[in-house]
């Protein structure tokens, strides 16, 4: 059963310096909390979200019965991340379109909507912003930070930027950086958006339009990479949309997989902001903690002091198990405490969001260990 939650917002007037050299001031971060912070303030767990998700991690809004959080199967009373034991925080990334200040909001310096003028943000910038919100909540140290995909990159970055504030870190279905193929997919998706005639250089809000065609294509490209070949073949195969009827058309929808992708693209274009998509995929591209160390991941991760859990999925070709093993090896080379699970699952990258008893069991056991460390404080 899900539980009722309320979205909150916190405003920050002081400028936040960004890795680009720019800064942003007078911004707000949307967030949600689940469970209770203990007297010692030692049971807080930060959950970082992936590309098209938000701070709405678990539970549902009372007036929206079908509004379950994107990781509701993982987080809640009695679940793998048990909110009867832990105080869980979800924060919407700066630049997103789900409540935190982003391109759709007004720039306090100009009085106009940011649009394409919203500053480029990085994973490290998001972590800095999250740290400010935790400061305001009076949380000095996290029992754990956890995330999947892009969220996993944020969790990893937390252990490097604020090693003294993180005791445990779960990095799920993630990677230490994007390979060339992943950057290429992101660039094709971005080009679909920026070449849409309704994009208007990122200032489409002023024209009262949305670059829906570009967003649809971007989502279709992305969705293909989230699924495995096995799942697509099992769900759709070569099924025709209209039984056995072939139209011999280069433009009509002939196959079920085409219909499914168009549906996903249409749905995405109704709720996601085009400039946010550009910002977040570029943040993915830029993330590379080993870059400042000549590509040596071992040297980059030497700063981390947390105990780690890494989870990968056998059919995830976007963030393959080999990428998680790179992180595991670098941590072991630094003599860090690491648990690693490689789940044989057919679902591709999306597996980190789905119900798999082995996967949920691994996470449950890991958090039970953290609760045991906290003792009566959990």
How is the topology of this model organized?
Elements: E1 4-5, E2 8-12, E3 16-17, E4 23-24, E5 27-34, E6 44-48, E7 60-61, E8 75-76, E9 81-82, E10 87-91, H1 123-136, E11 144-148, H2 150-161, E12 168-172, H3 180-194, H4 212-226, H5 229-235, H6 256-271, H7 274-286, H8 297-300, E13 307-313, H9 321-333, E14 338-343, H10 357-374
Parallel strand pairs: 1-7, 6-10, 6-11, 8-9, 11-12, 12-13, 13-14
Antiparallel strand pairs: 2-5, 3-4, 5-10
Helix pairs in contact: 1-2, 3-4, 3-7, 4-6
Low-confidence stretches: none
Strands side by side in the biggest sheet: 2-5-10-6-11-12-13-14
Helical region count? 10
Could you spell the SSE succession in H and E letters? Answer: EEEEEEEEEEHEHEHHHHHHEHEH
Strand content: 15-25%
Mean pLDDT: 94
Classification by helices and strands: alpha/beta
Catalytic activity: L-homoserine + succinyl-CoA = O-succinyl-L-homoserine + CoA
Subunit structure: Homodimer.
Keywords: Acyltransferase, Amino-acid biosynthesis, Cytoplasm, Methionine biosynthesis, Transferase
Protein name: Homoserine O-succinyltransferase
Question: Notable features of this structure?
Answer:
378 residues, 14 strands, alpha/beta, 34% helix, 10 helices, two-stranded parallel ribbon, 8-stranded mixed β-sheet
